Amino acid sequence: MLSDEFFIDDNEMEGKERFVLIYGTIADLGGHNLGVVYDQQLNQASFPMTTDNMESVEPIDEHEEMWFPLETILTQWIYMTRIGKVVAGLPETLPSGGPPTNRSQFYLWSWLPYCNAQIDSTIAAIERYSAAVESRMPPDSLLPISAPLFTSAELDVAAVPQDCFIRLLLTRVKTPRFKFIAPGLEVPHDKEAFARRQRFTNIPHEEDSIPGVLLFAAPDRSVDLNLEIRRLFSTAHENVRMNDDDPVPIGLYSEPVRRGVYDMEEAGFRLVLPFQLRPGFFRDEDGARMSDGKPVTSGSFTELFQHGYFHPFGGERRSQRLERLFERWIVLIESGVWTVGEAGVEGGIDKFGDADRGAWNEYSIAPSW
Question: Which domain of life is it from (predicted)?
Fold first, then answer.
């Protein structure tokens, strides 16, 4: 099947025979659908779900990083089915044994908010990261801790919902034996302070929704509840009932999700910063970038380390996975971009601003599902 939609003027072609539409997206996803497009000249494929995504993949010589061997795309899909993230049919319960879910189903396939394998792999990534930090600290500065990061009772005090990814993660992952897990971000050793800092878990949320949980905070740093942050955290609520000038604690949050919404990712995250990324009128080539190679929105507080708007293996809106963040942070530690001292990772939260100061590639995660 040849694609009648894929533009060819900028790709030095004599005809459309170069591109084949292998798998088309379904009409339920909206109009102007495309799908997996195969370039027979380069033997590479990409997945622009709609014609709106075409600017992310062509002209090809300007978007080569968004084209992959077809087997790479298929391997990503196979992996998601093997771990139980995508399942055939309609599951009766969530992986945690929670209530029935009829979320994100298209025809035969269902996309689950999370799966057991994601809990295991995210815990493994965090613990590998903690080990990388601890191995660089003076042995006598390590905190004498061996218990999981939280008990269920401690999460109850913080109003973290039952039967969700982040609760299962926090009650199983080992407590890091240091104070700072990233520049300016503290490990929540003080459980009372952790509960006090939560701004969204106590706001009434929809039955099928999980509010954002502040995991690692930058003490005494906050940002006003601007429109971007209100929209992000309102995902799980009809409305975030806070004033625009109310302070929102800075730090790494779990992704707020409404499970009935297409393409959500409960195992995701958002890093809320106290400063804007790419402020003012940066040129497109300047400043922080996302996984799809596009610049972070000028003035954004929450887009660092995110996918971007184009997912070359499928997807449109979901957040980046927490597992991938810690895998990236391991690289920053092992390469020496981040340094380690007696209290853990050194530097303040403003260190993340290096993404705007020529180091965008250090603060971007390679494309994945």
Answer: Eukaryota
